[in-house]
Amino acid sequence: MGKLSKYEKETIVNFNEKESEATIYTHNADLKRRLAEFSRKYPTLCRLKCQNMEGGVPYVMDKSRLSIRLVPPYSEERRAAARKYAKQHGFQILQIDEKIA
């Protein structure tokens, strides 16, 4: 089978009200890394089912460990404060490089 497009590389979270486990199927590299790390640390709460040929991985995990966080947009006041802070303090890594040189 050919390479999947970005559109085809899905993340699917599936659970129901009755069962205590959720299934997470993903192609997302960061989420795959985080799930692998979590399953190594907590093998009784999260486990890899199998890998498929296209690179997706399904994990089964205790539903109580799954969280969906909704983040509201920043207020204009918070954005203005962040801009002000960034202008005052600049990009810190550049200051470190200047001291080395």
Overview of this structure, please?
The protein is of the alpha+beta class. It has a domain of 58 residues. It contains three helices and four strands; from the N terminus they run E-E-H-E-E-H-H. The chain has a four-stranded antiparallel sheet, with helices on one face. Strand 3 and strand 4 form a beta hairpin. The radius of gyration is 20 Å and the shape is extended.
Structural features:
101 residues, alpha+beta, four-stranded antiparallel β-sheet, extended
What's the layout of helices and strands?
Layout: E1 11-14, E2 21-26, H1 29-41, E3 46-48, E4 57-62, H2 76-89, H3 92-100
Antiparallel strand pairs: 1-2, 2-4, 3-4
Largest sheet entry: 4 strands, antiparallel
Nearest-integer average pLDDT: 87
Q: Give unreliable regions as ranges.
A: none
Strand order of the largest sheet: 1-2-4-3
Which structural class do you get from the secondary structure elements? Answer: alpha+beta
β-strand amount: 15-25%
Sketch the topology as an H/E string, one letter per element. EEHEEHH
What distance lies between the first and last C-alpha atoms, to the nearest angstrom? Answer: 51 Å
Shape: extended
The tally of beta strands, per DSSP, is 4
Helices, by number, come to 3
Radius of gyration: 20 Å
Helix percentage:
25-40%
Structure, briefly:
The protein contains 3 helices and 4 strands. With 101 residues, the chain is of the alpha+beta class. It has a 4-stranded antiparallel β-sheet with strand order 1-2-4-3, covered by helices on one side.
